[in-house]
Specification:
transcription regulation; DNA-binding transcription factor activity; DNA-binding; alpha+beta; single chain; Metal_resp_trans_reg; 108 residues
Length: 108
Amino acid sequence: MKSKHLTGDQLLAALSALSNPHRLRVIAALAAGGRNYVSQLARELNISRPLLHLHLQKLQEAGLVSSQMELSDDGKALNYFEAAPFAITLTPAAVSEAVATLTHNPDK
């Protein structure tokens, strides 16, 4: 995800996803340690798997993480997540460009 190409809706989704401390910790853990599966990541972050799933879903919807299901050697399905490459530059001009593409405009 490049900020130059973010629509208003994409910018709002990314900022919303990043506005939670748990989700910031998830991004930081994936950036530092590389891809990881849900159970291990939940243990490392000391949060429950259901709560982690909610946060990962929000991050994935915003395009900030990606996932891939894989089978372990013992046949277990493991959902691996990794941080997606992204850069968000917030400037008045970037916000103005993004606002012009919003699909929901409460002022109209």
